[in-house]
Write a structure and sequence with these properties.
Elements lengths: L13 E4 L13 H12 L6 H10 L16 H13 L5 E4 L8 H9 L1
Parallel strand pairs: 1-2
Length: 114
């Protein structure tokens, strides 16, 4: 906000997805472990591995891909891990900054439909 005034509702839960969010993730952890650890620490301490795996699977990281270390994933796959964490964050307003930069067309279309 460059000028003016912004008034937020006290019930606002803002989720911001930046284009470099995936770069902030620990490359030594596998995708599933990372998603469950972040979500349990920051948003929902009761999230199950199954729910985290379902979120990753919906983003194209199913089977053994969900168990790969981040350093072994492509840039687009890392973006999907970050998007999986973001999708499990309970917010009522989401801001997405160039989220499709590292995603393939199938994932971009699914995101658009969601």
């Amino acid at each position: 906000l460059l000028a003016g005034e912004r008034m937020e509702n006290p019930n606002l839960c803002l989720g911001v997805f930046t284009q470099d969010l995936a770069q902030e993730l620990n490359p030594q952890k596998n995708a599933l472990t990372l998603v469950t650890e972040v979500v349990r620490k920051e948003f929902d301490m009761y999230i199950s591995n199954e729910n985290a795996r379902a979120a990753l699977g919906a983003l194209g990281l199913s089977g053994e891909k969900a168990l790969r270390r981040l350093q072994d994933l492509s840039g687009g796959e890392k973006a999907r891990v970050a998007l999986g964490i973001f999708a499990l964050k309970p917010c009522n307003l989401y801001l997405l900054d160039e989220v499709s930069n590292h995603l393939d067309m199938e994932c971009v279309e699914a995101l658009s439909e969601a």
